[in-house]
Amino acid sequence: MADADHGENAISAGSASPLGSSYNGSGANFSLYSAHAERVVLCLFDEQGRERQMDLPGRTGDIRHGYLAGVKPGQRYGYRLYGPFEPRQGHRFNPTKLVIDPCARALDGKVPDDPALNGGLAQPDTADSASAMPKCLVVDERYDWQGDEFPAVPWGETVIYEAHVRGLTRLHPDLPQSVRGTYAGLAHPLMIDYLRHLGITAVELLPVQLHVDEPRLQRQGLRNYWGYNVLAPYAAEPGYASGLDGKSALDEFRDMVKVLHRAGIEVILDVVFNHSAELDVEGPTLSLRGIDNAAYYWLDEDGDYCNWTGCGNTLNLSSPAVAAWVLDCLAFWRRTCHVDGFRFDLGTVLGRTPDFVRDAPLFAALRDNPDLAGCKWIAEPWDIGPGGYQVGQFPPPFGEWNDHFRDDMRRFWLHGDVPLGTFARRFAASSDLFGAQGRSPCASVNMLTAHDGFTLQDVVSYNEKHNQANGESNRDGAGDNHSNNHGQEGPSAEPSVRQARRDSQRALLATLLLSQGAPMLLAGDELGHSQQGNNNAYCQDNELTWLDWRRGDRELADFTAALIRLRQKIPALTDDRWWRENDEQTVLWLNSRGQALNAQEWEQGERQMQIRLSRDHLFVINATTKACEMTLPEGKWTLIEPFKRPEQPGSADHFFVEARAVYVLVKR
After folding, report:
1. DSSP 426-446
2. 630 and which of 26, 306, 330, 592 could share a cystine (Cβ 3.0–4.6 Å)?
3. What is the DSSP string of 41-92?
4. C-beta separation of 621 from 614 below 8 A
5. CB of 235 within 8 A of CB of 209?
């Protein structure tokens, strides 16, 4: 390690706020939280990697800070912290380990699989890690937003498109090669036109916070494609930047947001505040472990990590200082990057105290923070800790991923073991889960698929997972997917199998996009994208996960777009108000004879029904494997786009319904 600097350009006390490094045009302020450190040393690096050290002289509570004149954007830096190494008390300070500023706006370099990064188990490791560690960068955050405004799409009109920045455009043949797989590629006019044609109102992006590859994956020659191994949560992932015109990843990301906003499309970020890239106790010391291990992580009485995430550690968001860090980070993405909302990975961690409580302090702080006003909040409402499954238990204004919708709708259409009553509950925004405690129907974020699991094409093509490429002997990934290969595992040339899969795809898409609640469509499902049965493709940064636009099913995409257009015309689906039972202004539930369903039909009847919404729209549903004829309610009903007329049109008051089919008619 280099000696501390006591010469020219000595550092002054500076300010505790803002956290991280902040450039003011003539120098930079550095601010770092650590409750238990005895000494905090700022380390500056020149282009040759030479290190200059200086203690942060200012202290405000548990925040150390200092200001250094003459520092310019691009300055590389890190920290070394001195303090006790007492694992049973949770302390793992080790000044031989250079650590990353948890508020760094950018990093220079990658994290290798290097033993010098290990901090030590019972005793501190003595190898200096500076040469192996990436360095933080001072950033000039100024940016011209040119009058950008948040689209502020009402929840009732929201249609979410979950996408991966790289995977969405990496194989698009009509995009310039230089922007494929980047923020600039997503912002390209061709992609904007496609998203507008599709009709989605928000893109929900898998993590764009700077993330790293776990040592195990590096040794296997794999990469963390999904990006849930976050190292620098304030930094835009540089691997998704084209670098054109010399723009930074941050500015290219903001360019993308600005273009999407002009098209009326919101940007929701999938954020990871449940664990860090430091993994378990044998993982690398990169940032929080070396800054204040006891403050940032949930630890047991022996000082070991509580692994409620499956990733080796769990962030302690009940700590006021750690919660303040999360709030500041979210406010950065909202204020500096104009992000419209956030989806919280393993969101149960947000409410742990350590038990999950609905009135956890962080929930109130999120709701009351003025910098975050107007944001959309979405929780993945589970983790793997005790009492981790909390679907329906998050407070307003959170929406939640609704896995009951996913599983019950798959079972209804693909296995026939779900009665009409359960189907109706899911179709009506799962009021059994979300109907109380002041929540609206759009608290239910309905999904059939997501990045984690089968794609829709694979749901109708595979009975078993096929994850051998992940290097875990097919042990990873969910084993029970409620899928149905329709008689043949994997791709099929058999016309009857292909037709059955086509019918099921369309029935499932219609169910998703025409149910009450906020629908989330997985990018590529509208194109028939397959991952060849891999239902845990977190480490597959290749053509298995990248969308194959050349072979995409454009007819299916047009069908999906027409469903979304239809959705926006039906007040019962866009008003975001709970339906009044048997009220023709909202919903009427009818059997195949056009009469109100009785109690026995709800639970034991044929899986055939009609749903009348907003008086003038009639959904005709036949989830059986046999065609049938239904008696329509009184009036003149006309089949509308995107539904094609059945082979047998029926009579004036009867309608022929093919097997595994949904139709929508409008009253003229």
Report:
1. HHBT-HHHHSSTT--GGGEEE
2. 592
3. EEEEE-TT--EEEEE--EEETTEEEEEEET--TT-EEEEEEE--EEGGGTEE
4. no
5. yes
In 3D space, the residue among 275, 246, 271, 276 whose CA is nearest the CA of residue 333 turns out to be 271
Torsion angle of C-alpha atoms 149, 154, 159, 160, degrees rounded to 10: 60
- The CA distance from 637 to 654, in Å, is 10
**Which one, of 503, 454, 541, lies nearest residue 181 by Cα?**
541
* Three-state DSSP state, 219: helix
User: Can you list the residues of the chain whose pLDDT is less than 70?
Assistant: 1-9, 647-652
- The residue whose two tokens read 């403050």 is 295
What residues does 618 pair with on adjacent strands? 612, 665
**Identity of residue 99:** V
Helix (H, G, I), strand (E, B) or coil at 631: strand
Q: Identify whether the C-beta of residue 458 lies closer than 8 Å to the C-beta of residue 466.
A: no
Other C-beta atoms within 10 Å of 336: how many? Answer: 16
Burial of 666 (0-12, 13-18, 19+ CB in 10 A): middle
Contact 575, 585 (CB under 8 A): no
How is the beta sheet containing 39-45 ordered, strand by strand? 51-55, 39-45, 76-82, 135-137, 107-108
Rounded Cα–Cα distance for residues 466 and 482 (Å): 15
Taking a C-beta distance cutoff of 8 angstroms, is the pair 532, 490 a contact?
A: yes
Inter-residue contact 136 to 100 (CB < 8 Å):
yes
What string of DSSP letters covers 632-659? Answer: PPSS-EEE-TTPPPPSS---SSEEEE-S
Give pLDDT, residue 649: 59
CB atoms within 10 A of CB 11: 22
Strands (E), 186-334: 202-205, 209-211, 230-236, 266-271
Read off φ and ψ for residue 424, nearest 5 degrees. -65, -40
Residue 67: burial class (beta carbons within 10 Å; 0-12, 13-18, 19+)? buried
Q: Please report the pLDDT score of residue 650 as a whole number.
A: 56
Quote the tokens at residue 33: 């939280």
Rounded-to-integer distance, Cα 579 and Cα 573, Å? 10
Per-residue pLDDT, 413: 97
Coil vs helix vs strand at 180: coil
Q: How far apart are CA 491 and CA 457, in angstroms?
A: 10
Asked if residues 485 and 465 have their Cβ atoms less than 8 Å apart, the reply is no
First to last CA, the chain: 80
Structure token digits, residue 645: 């007329």
H-state helical runs in 486-553: 495-513
Beta bridge partners of 587: 583, 613
- The pair of structure tokens assigned to 74 is 């691009």
| Other CB atoms within 10 Å distance of the CB of residue 140 | 17
Return the structure tokens found at 618: 């009639």
Would you name the residues annotated as active-site residues?
345, 380
Distance of alpha carbon 508 from alpha carbon 506, whole angstroms: 5
C-alpha torsion 423→427→430→432, nearest 10: -50
Please state, in angstroms and rounded to a whole number, the distance separating the CA atoms of residues 544 and 167: 9
Q: How far apart are CA 498 and CA 631, in angstroms?
A: 30
Hey, how many other C-beta atoms are within 10 angstroms of the C-beta on 221? 8
